[in-house]
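Input sequence (650 aa), recorded before submission:
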Amino acid sequence: MRVILIGLGVGLAPAASEEGRLKGECVGVDGEELHRLLALLLDRLMNFSIEVEPWLSSLGQMLQSTEAFFSFQELSRQIEAYHFQEAEELTHALARAFGLELAPMSPPAETVPISRVLIVDDQPSNVDLLKELLIEHHRLVALSGPQALRAALSREPPDLILLDIMMPEMNGYEVCRQLRENPRTRDIPVIFVTAKKQVADESEGFRLGGVDYITKPFQGEIVKRRVLTHLELKRSRDALEREIRARTADLNAAREEAERARAAAESGNRAKSTFLAHMSHEIRTPLNAILGVNELLIEADATPEQRRYLEMARKASESLLALVNDVLDFSKIEAGQFDLERSCFDLPALIAGAAEILAIPARERGIRLSRTVDVALPRHVSGDPNRLRQILLNLLGNAVKFTREGEVALTVTSAGGGRIAFEIADTGIGIPEEKLATIFQPFRQADLSTTRQYGGTGLGLSICALLVEHMGGTIGVESVVGQGSRFHFTLSLPVADPDAPLVLTSVIRHGVRDASVVHEGEERGLSILMAEDSEDNRILIKAFLKNSPHRLEFADNGALACEKFQQGHFDIVLMDIQMPVLDGYAATRRIRAWEKEQGVLPTPVVALTAHAMQEASSEAMAAGCDYYLSKPIAKKRLLEVLREFAAAGR
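Predicted structure, token format:
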């Protein structure tokens, strides 16, 4: 592109109109190149840079034969005098004279980055001297404090500032103070330049954030060395900060990735828990019918052979139920999705109860089961009684199962500091030494033949280990093949207030008595509403209550149960949780809301569910249920619960 320069005066006054009224001659100029040179020059001037070669020389050659050359010479003088604002105005004027719109253009980046040093001094002679000493660096110049602040905030800020102290308008101390207050400039190193040699002056400069002093008159090598030293320090600091930022970014990325993985794992755990809960329900529902019918048939007039077959079916069903319970327990504990309770309980009574449960199978095998409890142990302790009972039953059960003759001994002693030591020793088959390291891992038994001969899932010891760990204890084992094993664990069970309410095996929210009280006299019959969608379970419960004084009415979904409850009078509601139309949670909430509206006392609601997950129990209680029974439900247990509610006067 070529543009026509229409005569200009020295002041570069543009033409009044395109028709004419202009002075001078027309000269052909390469407009694109002119625009490029002026834009590059403008960028340098706006950044207070004196590094304007070779663009200034090329511009001079281009304008040498034009009347604009006089203005170019004035532009050069202003740059030499470090009058950047005036030089900017002249650059824009030159562009307008040629009909060009000008914006700064960044020059290509240097192949080897050059440090940018800002020289701040109100005496051009001092600037001249310093710029010659620092010719190896990219030099910026400011003749006043305000100019220095603008240069420091420019698009390409300096890497280091040489700052004169004694300047009019704003001295070097004030400039340094404002630099340190601005987050964009606070890290630029400042070397003060002064003719003074006073300790007080140096102290003030260092207090304001200066990194060094250079005194006038200048000694060239000292100036160069100090500037180079502080630039190297800054480069090292900048490199370290870049590395820290990169490491921080990597850490943040890793943390975000870990968070995504955690969220995915939690989502997977939730999906697994939901799956297990549904599988629990689907397995336990038919098991409930199998065990219930089996119980009814055993009570009937069966022949010895029939009774033997029924006992086989009962044991097989109970084994399947134990397998389901172990898998559910292990999955929940492993995922950390279970809660430990902290309550007061009777420790000797719990130990005695656990031992009594295993006394019958031990007696059947001809094994002596003994228990020794240190009399110095506190009676009432604080902890999770259900989980402790689970650990004891598992370890005692294993000891009985793997012992052919001899004895199983349970010993409980104090370990000091509120900790209690439990030991289960047996004279059983023992465990090979090489297997001891993995005995607490899931699905591991000492030998595959152990599973075939004695049964089991290989999860019991894993569950015990996880429970002890989550309860803040330790567990271990010693064993000799053919001589027996000794399992031991310790738990922190602090002494509890004996006046605190004890945890009972049965809790009735609206009742006036606990499950341990025995009542005399004839049992009161209850009017029972049972919400249950499974016909098999309805038939089973009806058979369970056949010879009892209780009256039973059914509803096959939650909505119908609410309707019948509002229309009739019932002493208790047996509420299945998983039902069509309206589930047990929603039905219970609706019943509680209706009772509140009517101003009547709440009727006990017992949740019946095949869900074995802890959340099901918690959600049932939160919905307003008073008690919780997990399927399969034994006839004896159901009658006990009904007897308790009847005795409570409900």
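Checked by second reader. The chain has a mean pLDDT of 82.
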